[in-house]
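User: Thanks for the earlier help. One more: WLM domain-containing protein. Can you show the sequence and predicted structure together?

Assistant: Of course, both are below.
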Amino acid sequence: MDASITLHISHRGTLHTLSLPPDSTWHSLQTHLEELTRVPPSNQKFLGKGLKKRISPDDTLGAAGVKDGVKIQMLGPTPEELGGMKAAEDEKARRDRIMRERALKQPVAVRNTGSSSSASLNYRFHAIAPLPHLPRPDAARALLQRLADDPAIRHIMQRHQFAVGLLTELAPHEHPNLLGLNVNAGQEIKLRIRTDRYDGFRLYADIRRVLCHELTHNVHGDHDNDFKELNSQLNREVTQFESARAGGAHRLGGAGDLLRRSQAYVLGGKTGSVTPLPNESPSKGGEDAAGTVSRLRKEEEELERSCGTTGSS
């Protein structure tokens, strides 16, 4: 008879070591884990090297891709936590309904006639919620709050009258091909803020670029020329806002200035010539800027491929 297979299952910082016969089914493994963690099989999600993407409960451990000594991370909420999530979702739905009813009762807002304080209340993220069943929800909430409070983001939201009901996150294992999603033209924006292995968070600047992309979907659903123009404008306005706060674009200088000027042309907008920096030959300035433009265009194309938002808004 073959020796047992040893598995090391990590769940929320606790390591569970199991030894099972090689002909054990995947369902039997899930049953053992339910006894240890109280997470039912229907809620269990697994991350591990070599595991099949689709595993049947009747598959043996070997057929599922499990090897002796393998380390697997398990994710998933308990029934009690699911109840809490359901209650939170019901409360959020109640708040959203109240906000919609209030918006319907208010007169249509006209630019530059209301107070800045009322604009701040309307054009913002009205709720923030990390996914409670993923690791470190407090850190995820802090990152989402940082995005919501980002002065440059708040600036473009008020300038373009963007309002978002909920800012939340996408789970990498549930949406492996997506970086962002805008639901119903601003009802929710979901961002991929975590690394694939759940051992940290993606770079803030990269997440914020995805956020600008998804905010553009408040107006345009498809990635057409109108979308590209507005997306380019939002990125340009973020850069200009931060440059002004830093003391003015004329004092930036160096490669940072080249990057900022290049961003004004890329991201789907109209293109034009780029003026070389001082003490820089025109050919060198054009080559560096062209390289930056090409790189940023490729990044924006990747964002479009990783965006789950389609259709007219």
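User: Great, one quick takeaway?

Assistant: The chain has a mean pLDDT of 78.
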